[in-house]
Design brief:
The protein is of the alpha/beta class and about 280 residues long. The chain folds into 2 domains: about 220 residues, HUPs (Rossmann fold, 3-Layer(aba) Sandwich), CATH 3.40.50.620; about 40 residues, no CATH class. It is built from 7 helices and 13 strands. The strands form 3 sheets. A 9-stranded mixed β-sheet has the order 11-10-9-12-8-1-6-7-13, sandwiched between helices. Strand 3 and strand 4 form a beta hairpin. Helix 2 runs antiparallel to helix 5. The chain is globular and about 70 Å long. This is Electron transfer flavoprotein small subunit. InterPro entries: ET-Flavoprotein_bsu_CS, ETF_a/b_N, ETF_b, ETF_beta_N, Rossmann-like_a/b/a_fold. Its cofactor is AMP. Belongs to the ETF beta-subunit/FixA family.
C-alpha cells in the first residue's frame, strides 16, 4: 500500500493580513488562521489516490499548538494520521530552516509509520509566497521533485512510477518519474471536498502526534528557528491604491458604443501611451 505524506501549514487568512512597519513581520495576533489552501489541494489529490489505488495518508505540520486545528480539518477530510511538530526552538524559521525540520519529520514518519512513496506540498504558502519549502524538502531527502503539478495522470504500482502534468509558462509538460517523489500542487489540480459527517466526528476527538525538539536526537540547533534562518527582510510595503477614473459613453447600439470608445481612445489614451503629438496624429 502506498504511503503518502502531505505537508500542511496553518497561515493567517490572506484577507486579514497586516504588516508591522517597525519589524517588517506579519501581525498574527487577532488574525484568523486557516490551512494553506494550496496544501489542501495536495491533500485532496492524496485522498483521490487513496480511493483509486489504496494508500495511507499522514499529514505533517510545523507550527504553534493552535495549528492542531488545521490538522483536525485534514483528519475530517480523510487523512489517517497527523503529526504536529511544535517547539519554541522552531519559531522564526525561514524556508531553509523549515525545509530542514520538515525533512527530519518526514524521515521520522518513514521510520516509525512506514516508507514514504509520495510527498505533497502546496506550490507556495499564502504568508510566505516563496515556493521554496517543497523543493527544499526534496533536496534534503534526495527525492525526485515535480513542481507546479496540476494533474496526476496515473500511478503504476508494479514499476513504482507516476505520471503527472506540469503547468509551465509556455505550455504543459507531461513527466513520468519513479517514486519516492515530492509533488507541489496547483489549485487547478482539483476541487477540495467537504468533510463528511463521520470524518468530522472522528476529527472532533482525534489527537495528533506531537513532536518537539526532544524527539529529534540528531537535530542541529544551529539549523532551526531564527539561528538557522539567514533570510533578511530589508523592506516591506503595502501597494498604493490606484484611483481609476471611469466615464460612461451612452449609446443604444453596440456599433455606436464601439465607435465612441475608439474615438475616445484615439483622442486620449493612445497619444498619452505612445507619446504622439497632435501633428503626428494628423
Amino acid at each position: 500500500m502506498l504511503h503518502i505524506v502531505v505537508c500542511v501549514k496553518q497561515v493567517p487568512d490572506s484577507r486579514e493580513i497586516r504588516i508591522d512597519p517597525k519589524t517588517n513581520t506579519l501581525i498574527r495576533q487577532g488574525v484568523p488562521a486557516i490551512a494553506n489552501f494550496y496544501d489542501m489541494h495536495g491533500l485532496e489529490e492524496a485522498l483521490r489516490i487513496k480511493e483509486q489505488y489504496g494508500a495511507r495518508i499522514t499529514v505533517v505540520c510545523m507550527g504553534p499548538p493552535p495549528a492542531e486545528k488545521s490538522l483536525k480539518q485534514c483528519i475530517s477530510l480523510g487523512a489517517d494520521e497527523a503529526v504536529l511538530v511544535t517547539d519554541r526552538g522552531f519559531a522564526g524559521a525561514d524556508t531553509l530552516a523549515t525545509s530542514y525540520v520538515l525533512g527530519l519529520t518526514i524521515a521520522k514518519v518513514a521510520a516509525e509509520i512506514g516508507p514514504v512513496d509520495i510527498v505533497f506540498c502546496g506550490k507556495q504558502t499564502l504568508d510566505g509566497d516563496t515556493g521554496q519549502v517543497g523543493p527544499g524538502i526534496a533536496c534534503r531527502l534526495d527525492l525526485e521533485q515535480l513542481t507546479y503539478v496540476y494533474k496526476v495522470e496515473g500511478i503504476d504500482l508494479e514499476t513504482r512510477r507516476i505520471t503527472v502534468h506540469r503547468l509551465l509558462e509556455d505550455g504543459v509538460e507531461v513527466v513520468q518519474t519513479s517514486m519516492p517523489v515530492l509533488i507541489t500542487a496547483l489549485k487547478e489540480m482539483n476541487k477540495v471536498r467537504r468533510a463528511p459527517m463521520p470524518g468530522m466526528l472522528r476529527a472532533a476527538t482525534y489527537k495528533p502526534i506531537i513532536w518537539t525538539t526532544a524527539d529529534f536526537p540528531g537535530l542541529e540547533r544551529a539549523k532551526i528557528g531564527l539561528k538557522g534562518s539567514p533570510t533578511i527582510v530589508s523592506k516591506t510595503w503595502v501597494p498604493e491604491q490606484k484611483q481609476v477614473n471611469t466615464e460612461m459613453l451612452p449609446n443604444e447600439s453596440a456599433t455606436g458604443a464601439a465607435t465612441a470608445l475608439l474615438e475616445k481612445l484615439w483622442q486620449t489614451e493612445l497619444p498619452q501611451r505612445f507619446g504622439w503629438t497632435a501633428q503626428e496624429e494628423a
